[in-house]
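Notes from hallway chat w/ T.B., transcribed later so I don't forget. T.B. wanted the structure written out for a chain they're using in a teaching module, and asked if we could keep both sequence and structure tokens in one place. Agreed to drop them here.
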Amino acid sequence: MLCAFACSMAAEGKVISFGTIFLDSAGKFFFTYPTAMPSQAALQELQRNFIKQRFGENFSSKDPAAALSLYKEQNKEIEILKDQISFPLPGIVQFITYYYAYSEGNAHGESGSEVSIYALADGKKIELKSLFAKGSEKDITQMIIREFLKMQNLQSLDDYSYTKKESDFTPVSAMISELGLDFVYPTYKLAPHSAGEQVVFLSWNSLKPYLNKQSVIYQKLKF
């Protein structure tokens, strides 16, 4: 069934709306996607990107309802399939997708998530690396490591038992907000399964020296 309203807002007198399809009455399988935007081209681009993120490239040509139904049918081990949208900065939509799968023979279920941000003006994905100045990756990684160790009450990676590889902390996914970035690391990347995903927060102010001043995001920040 289709829930006709998930989010609707006015942008300069023009409506931007998102709808949600529910595949089951318990709400374990649903898909939120854009239904109306000022630009038809931007709407189509954002719909394709949402479907691609949620279900993969092979589903990008299908309509939202068909993509959700077929994906569930082809992935019998999926226990929960859900998503979340937010608008962390003007003109930006953040799409977070989650799944929980319990495969036969496994001792426990496996969960995963993906975070992406898109520009409402054209529906295109904003890559995380585009937020940072060229050559800043090592400095940002070092900042993340220092903050992670602080969370663990440790002095250096030599004192951490799970991983001592700095490359494991290279940022690949982050949730964005008005305050800064929550760098997200999947289960097993920085910690054992029992600890789940690891999230390390860095404020915009701390990241400011390493931000790309030409990026779409930088232009929306208030320092």
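Follow-up for T.B.: The helical segments are 40-55, 64-74, 137-151, 204-207. Might be a good example for the class.
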